[in-house]
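Dear Dr. V.,

Thank you for agreeing to look over these. As mentioned in my earlier message, I'm a first-year student in the group and I'm still getting used to reading structure tokens, so any feedback on how I've presented them would be very welcome. I ran two proteins. I've put each sequence directly above its structure. The first is here:
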Amino acid sequence: MLLSLRSPQSAEATALRQQSTTWRFGSYGFLGVVVLTGVALGVQGNWWRYGWIWAAIVIVVAAVLALGAIGIRLRRTRSRVRVWLISIIGMVGLLLLLWLMVLKPF
């Protein structure tokens, strides 16, 4: 919905932008919970000596930085961002993380 709002002028559009900003800050809290849980389970399972957990950390950081850069570009220029690019970055990151966690290849 936010992608279609070029210059919000109505009260409904302003409310949607405010809600989007609120959820953005809330999502960082959930991301922090996921990271802390991963670190705690890594310590509990003594996984830090294996390479797959370090690769997973690199993937999470790369995905967050890439999606953050796209979000900053979207907010600054108010240009349309290709939704498929955001989807591909998120899905590839998620699939790689699942592959690493399930198979633990190295």
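The second protein is here, in the same arrangement:
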Amino acid sequence: MNPYDKVMMMYRDAGDDVEVPLSDMIAHHVHNGMLVSTHDVFLACRPVCSSWSDEDHLDISKVAFRDEADCWMVWMASGSMAELMALLAKYPLPWVSFSRGDSRKVIRISSERIYGINLKSLQKAKGSESSSGSTRG
């Protein structure tokens, strides 16, 4: 069973207990965050501020603007954890947050702890590479 099918089954099994219907969740993350569905992974996440309350992290309508976001709130994930983390690493933010199952507690983990790198220094290095520019003749 692929990751999307697992998500579909979870929504079907939850029935009327689902907070946000599947079609609304997908549309919201396509419009306001990131949604990736492949044969190996399903990931729905949106940018938030790590300092926001757990309640705000769990409110799908709360989205941080790009310049203030410092955290990916993972709403739904299924599949290879290594591939999920690799996807998030392509669009790095200093924090990743999530909750498990029906829990109203949000777990926040620094990207430095996940990847073993300091994203601020990495982003500075990338910025200086792009600003230094190069010319080819």
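From my reading of the second output: The CA atoms of residues 108 and 133 lie 36 Å apart. Residues 128-137 have pLDDT under 50 and may be disordered. Does that match how you would interpret it?

Kind regards,
E.
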